[in-house]
Every structure is written in structure tokens, then in C-alpha cells.
Amino acid sequence: MGSVGPVGGRILLTGVSGQVGGELLETLKPLGEVVAPARAQMDLADAASVREMIRVIRPRWIVNAGAYTAVDQAEAEPELAYAINAEAVKAIGEEAKRLGTGVLHFSTDYVFDGCSSTPYRETDATGPVSVYGASKLAGENALRESGAEHLIFRTSWVYGIRGKNFLLTILRLAREREGVRVVADQFGAPTWSRDLARMAAAVIGQCEDGAQGCATGAVLRDFGGVYHAAGSGETTWHGFATEAVRLAREQEPGVRFAELEAITTAEYPTPAKRPANSRMNCERLAERFGWRMMDWKDSLRQVMAER
């Protein structure tokens, strides 16, 4: 999987307060000086502040883990979702193009409509069914059109021991209630935020091996583009919750946890439509970079052990 040794140069990291960004702050350190500005220093909702920070830092890499991820709320405030998920990415791309900076950007399975009967490949037609998904697709397109050398990693069902995510919500509700209803007809694979961060660092390390201290452009022209990077295996939200609660019961036999009821998407209406199929084919990632994402059950056991 290549080396992750010191390569020098600055890495500008966005979204450091988020699940993936927090993990990236650690995994990227061996690769160079990581600059991770807070929102007061660089506000992704303000493209001008994004451009200014990039011009000041002059990074060798920009790793964009920041995003507007409030899926349902995006339906009510599309302007903010597009500002962060599209306009900021456009600014990142244009400034990166000017500086010759490499960009590593995270996207989502929500760029698809979720109607496929098989795991999505990078070449499958997109068709978002929510404002959030449309704004993330607009960000992908803006980065591509900027001419910057880039890597886009689409992922799904991200979780970890920090931030707000499905796992932490289910564990809290399972302690507070006698029963919890969980959707059982949406399919995908949970993705550990740390696995994503390790993958990103390994990929940058391999790109730097290929660049051998020169500009990143040449190697990214060969290995850049879109990749799918989600947990291996598949389950439903109900399956994910069931396994999490089972492990919690093993860890805390004296605690009474809720019973989980499987329900349909129709029984749990939300402002934003969710993809029924979030499964991702990640073979391109394995073929190009030799990286296979963890099986979701294996990563869940590790996360539960760290709580």
C-alpha cells in the first residue's frame, strides 16, 4: 500500500471538527505540516475566506473533509448546503489549479438515486434525490471542471466514536427506551471514519512516492478521479443497530437495552428522501491503491471496544 513517510509540504485540512476530519488530523501528520483552520479562520460557507486561506497557506495538498451533512435540514436551507458543498469546493479547485496543489475530496453515495439492484460503480449514472445529494454532486462537478488535479472518494454511512452519527444515536436511544424502530429496507455498509482517514493518508503517501518530491500533478493525472470507499459487506440500518446493541449487551450485561423493531422506509418519513441502495463497489480503490476497506462488522467491534 505504499509508504506513509514524511513528504514535507503543507496539507490544508478542512472539517477538522467532524468525524473524518478529526481522524485525518492524526493520520496526515506523518505526511507533512497539517494546517487545520477553525471556522472562524476559514468558513466553508464563505468562498472568499476559503480562497484567502489557501493563498496564505499555499499547501501542497488540500484534504477537504468539511461538508454540510444535515441531510433533512438541507431541504429547508439549500443555499447554505450549496455554498458549503459546491461553491467552497469550486473555490478550492480553482485555487488548487492556480498553485499546482493536489486535492483530496470526500463525497457520498447520495449522488446516486439508490434504485440500482447492484453496488454502485464509479462509472454509474448519478441522479441525486435530495438537496444534500445534489449539492455534493455539484461539488464533484465543480472540482472536476476547475482543472485541479484531484481525488474524489465517495463513501457512505460514516460513523465513529466522535461527533453525531447513527451508532451513537442508537446506543443512546437503546438505553433510554424500551423499544426503538429502525428502518430495515435501506441497504449499505457502515464506514468507520478512522478507516477512511487511514485510507486517505495511504493514498497521499503513494502519490508522493510516485511524485518523488516533484509536483503532484503528473501522478494525479494517472491515478486521480473518482473512487468509492465504503465499508465492506452489506447490511441495513436495522442490521447495523442490531449488531451494535448485541455488542453493547455483551459489554454491559447489567444494562437493559431496548428491543429493536424492523420497519420500512414508508413507516419513517423524513423531509429528504434516502437511497434504498447505498452499496458501493470499491474494487477500483483496491486495484489502483491496494487498499480494501474494513468489513463493517470488524470495524464496529473495534469502535465498540474503544468506547
Summarize the structure.
The chain has helices at 19-27, 47-57, 78-99, 131-146, 166-176, 193-211, 217-223, 237-251, 283-289, 296-306; strands at 10-14, 33-35, 61-64, 102-108, 150-155, 158-159, 179-183, 187-188, 191-192, 225-228, 235-236, 259-263.
**By helix and strand content, what is the structural category?**
alpha/beta
The helix fraction, in percent, is: 40-55%
Number of helices: 10
Uncertain spans, ≥5 residues at pLDDT below 50? Answer: 1-7
Mean pLDDT: 94
- What is the correct CATH architecture of the domain at 10-160 and 191-233 and 280-293? 3-Layer(aba) Sandwich
**Main sheet overview:** 6 strands, parallel
First and last CA, distance: 29 Å
- Radius of gyration, whole Å: 19 Å
- Work out the number of β strands: 12
- Helix-strand sequence: EHEHEHEHEEHEEEHHEEHEHH
Please state roughly what percent of the residues sit in beta strands, choosing from under 5%, 5-15%, 15-25%, 25-35%, 35-45% or over 45%: 15-25%
**CATH homologous superfamily assignment of the domain at 10-160 and 191-233 and 280-293:** NAD(P)-binding Rossmann-like Domain
Kindly report the CATH topology of the domain at 10-160 and 191-233 and 280-293. Answer: Rossmann fold
Spatial shape = globular
Q: Going across the major beta sheet, what is the strand order?
A: 2-1-3-4-5-10
